[in-house]
Amino acid sequence: MALTRDDVEKVSLLARLQLTDDELNSMTEHLSQIIQYVHQLDEINTDDVAPLAHTLDITNVLADDVVEECLSRDAALQNAPQRDEECFRVPAVL
Amino acid sequence: MSSPATQPTVGVPYTVVVGLEVHVQLKTNTKLFCRCPTTFGQPPNTQTCPVCLGLPGSLPVMNRHAFELSMKTALALNCTIPHFTKWDRKNYFYPDLPKGYQTSQFDLPMSEHGHLDIFSEDDEFADKQIRILRAHLEEDAGKSMHDEAAGVADSRIDLNRTGTPLLEIVSEPDMRSAAEAKAYLQELRLILLYLGVSDCNMQEGSLRCDANVNLHIDTPDGTIATPIVEIKNMNSFRAVQRGIEFEVDRQYALWQKDKQVLGDMPKQTRGWDEGAQITRAQREKEESSDYRYFPCPDLVPVVVTDEEIQAMQQQVGTLPANLRKQLLDDHQLTAHTSAVIVNQGLGFADYFLALATAIDDSRLAGNWMQGEVLRILNEQENTIEQFKLSTAELGELLKFIQSGDLDNSKAKDVFAVMIESGQPAADVMGELGIEKVDSSQLEELCRRLVDNNPKIVADVQSGNQKAVGALIGQARNENSNVDPGEVRQICLALIEKL
Amino acid sequence: MSIISKSATQQREMLRTGELTSVELTTVYLEQIKSRESTVKAFVHLDEQQALDTAQRIDTRRAAGEPLGDLAGIPVAVKDNLCSQGIPTTCASKILSGFIPPYDATVVTKLKTADAVLIGRTNMDEFAMGSSTENSAIQVTNNPWNLQCIPGGSSGGSAACIAANFAPLALGSDTGGSIRQPAALCGIVGLKPSYGRVSRYGLVAFASSLDQIGPMTGNVEDAALLLQVLAGHDSHDSTSADVAVDVYVENVTQPLSDLTLGVVDEHYGNGLDTEIRSSVQEAIRVYESLGATIKHIEMPHASYGIATYYIIAPCEASSNLSRFDGAHYGHRADVSTVDQTSTSEDALTRMYRSSRAAGFGDEVKRRIMLGTYALSEGYYDAFYLKALKVRRLIRQDYDNAFKDVDLLIGPVTASSAFKQGEKTSDPMAMYMEDLFTVTANLAGVAGISIPCGLTDTGLPIGVQLQSAPFQEDKLLRAAYMFQNATDWHQRRPEF
């Protein structure tokens, strides 16, 4: 039931988080504690219970296909950590 | 679910197994979850908003028209439309995916279990049905462009395309050759064009195709399957065909060396290199894709009633397969002419049908559509909607052929002038001095020619029928409106009577 | 009585009659901030000049007889996870340091249309994850009642702001109790509306199926006033309810006759502070004296609320926070200094990992990791799906309860404001702060925290009322009944 340090390292890659050795250790400990705690839900029989994903019982929220104003390019790029005149720039995607 | 029974490809000890995943950009005014325009080819990052940029706090609202176009397409592909469908998040990190997830559909797609029929004009394969596993609606990602300015490798990201509605159509692995795959793609594209749901332009990216390919190889120990390879980056029908053909050869050669089978490794992805005409392995990802699908809490499900499905079915309209059948059965066109007309699209086919009715002659109408009309449209880079002649105007011309006033060759001349000048057929014929030659006039002319050319007559009598050509030439010089065939016929008859 | 101790409702009247100008009112609050903010640290962003300019514009329009919005001239503080166009919106996180949204949240637009004076942006736990505001990457906020204590979280800045009289009205957000718990710990009123009552467009998402924005005020009638402005359907939010908005302001002072209140037995276990228990029981007696009937209610799945919440919220958060990757906005780490040969990862992956490592605090990382794990291959059924099923059972408990009673009454927290640092090394202990509040978010019902007492050491105690969805009107009226019969809401710390 407890997580191993290896599990945590794999999850950290999935989550794109770089953890230090100390962080990996404490994360393993804390996550294991929490996972153990939440497993109490296993006590409840939910065989005939449907999941509740939305508390509001609404469906079919659909909008008309009508163009609305866009952001200017400058507004779109204003928070970019790196940019050129037209685009966001990131380290090369291989 | 097993594939339909097939025979191995002739000449080689294996069966080719191909499934296609096609992404279609739907022709809506706005994106799937926001109201930014979807116009192609705009300057980078000028068609975005907080929603498609994935800015913190932004929320999606679904485009009704995109859903309707998806439904229409799914019905045209004979799919079942479930009453309940929902949206899921597909989580992964990539710079052209600003939210860090793509909103798509996972376990309850908006349609499933359809099919389309393929056929080969050149008899490369027998007619067959390709099953469609599912078609679902999802948002497109942005574009990433490689750039090596200042010696540092960067990618430049343009998010104009993020959020464009895509219909992903997944076939079952029912295709058994590159030719079948190409036929499937062509028929699918034609259906989409007939429905008017997409521009289907592979160069512009509004139609994209990935292929999943492997081989079932016959060995003395039974049939073994090679690992499945996904081929990406094929940007034309030809590329799809060549990519699959290359991959088949590569897999067989590789298997003979390493004997790897399905299950020995995860599905590999290879990119088609158009320049080198080969597939290349793409970089192994750090971790195998774990997309952590879960229902998107920002979107609510869509419920569809039977009435709504039926109403949408009514809107599907004429499809290529129905039209082909109609042209063969009701109009007795050849398979080839029928295919040419259908491939040009619904507008072209409608024009043909109206023309055939106007002159009550499907064969003549068909020949001219396939011939002169198509030729001039291609030359002038026009569509049938831009074609200068109405069915009535062209019909008038063709009626002159039917009545014998024009032969085919003269009719083409008149046609060319009609396009140029916009004048009706009769006027052009008048201007060109074309008129039917009276039969007694023609008889009299031929009699004179026979009388005045004893040498040619003797030539013909001695067995050289071709010599009559000189008489035809003279006849035409005298009266350009004579029909060469009629002249030949009458002269030969006269000579025989001598 | 100084203007600062009047309700926003009263101030509104005085502004209307001309007895007071907005500039005067705003200046009074700005002076209060100037004299006390350095000890409280409720704000992460203040723009004095902009506030005074807005106030001046409104005074001018009022003098010219122009029509004005419902909050015209009244200062409002806004939690730092609500996007405001052109103003730094950081969610108290390093990863959004310097981020300037190009758009306003719907609630911010509504405040502007109502002609409110936006006085500043308040501190919070980073990305709303926390119950003490100690997870802020910017600063610690001190509880005005005891500066060594936490104000609660995650809307701790807004709660402290009201308690310290820095503004009469504030916005908070509540995912598992983040309005109600700090309201209780700071002795003010905090209301979490029903899910879908207020638009989430522009609220930086933590857990999308649980988040709601709500009013934090000094009294119940002001909560009604602010909710009236915030509530309503928004076409930008697909989860926004298309349900008519009641006239909260007109109705709030009207008591409810034949009020039945449900007391949930599961709430009175061993973990509940003695002082809180007796204050809440006293509050129940007050309601009885006002004619309410008390019924005992069972909510068999209430104790599973924390486990359910701490699966659903981190799962949704792990996905919602993926967009903070250093690519298009926010903090990007400089990876050029990282030795290229020391890792087999490509530069892009390194950029993602180091940007997020540097930009997120420990609690945020913990919840992202938890959510990523719970959604990963093979675990979906055991965790997320299971939690959604228990969620339905919790909702059914509420539905059943509201067949028998009008509202539920009970504690907000198990204890009063704790000392800074007391729970920071034990994540689970911190999570238990949400014990009485999470079930309302899971079920989508509405809840309000109102002050009902003080501990021996002078720390505030709150009592919570909960209603069925879209019954905020009933909630506010019942809350007002209590307020009208007591004076806890008038208490303010002396500091």
Q: Overview of this structure, please?
A:
The complex is a heterotrimer of chains A (94), B (498) and C (495). Chain A is mostly helical and 94 residues long. Chain A contains three helices and two strands. In chain A, helix 1 crosses helix 2. The longest helix of chain A has 18 residues. Chain A is flat and about 55 Å long. Chain B has 498 residues and is α+β, with helices and mostly antiparallel strands. The longest helix of chain B has 22 residues. Chain B is elongated and about 95 Å long. Chain B starts with 13 loop residues before the first strand and ends with a helix. In chain C, 38% of the residues lie in helices and 13% in strands. In chain C, strands 1-3-2-4-6-5-10-11-9-7-8 form an eleven-stranded mixed sheet, with helices on both faces. Chains in contact: A-B, A-C, B-C. The interface between A and B is large, with 34 and 50 residues.
Overall spatial form of chain B:
elongated
* Residue runs with pLDDT of under 50 for 5 or more positions of chain B: 1-6
Alpha carbon gap, first and last residue of chain C: 18 Å
Biggest interface, chains and residues, is: A-C, 52 and 69 residues
What percent strand of chain B?
A: 15-25%
Strand ordering within the main sheet of chain C:
1-3-2-4-6-5-10-11-9-7-8
Radius of gyration of chain B: 30 Å
**What portion of residues of chain C is helical?**
25-40%
Order of helices and strands of chain C: HHEHEHEHEHEEHHEHEHHHHEHHEEH
For this structure, the quaternary state is heterotrimer
Strand tally of chain C: 11
Structural class designation of chain C: alpha/beta
Q: What's the CATH architecture name of the domain at 3-261 and 406-490 in chain C?
A: Alpha-Beta Complex
Anisotropy-based shape of chain C: globular
* Number of H- or I-type helical stretches of chain B: 15
CATH fold assignment of the domain at 3-261 and 406-490 in chain C: Amidase signature (AS) enzymes
Query: Between the first and last Cα atoms of chain B, what is the distance in angstroms?
Result: 80 Å
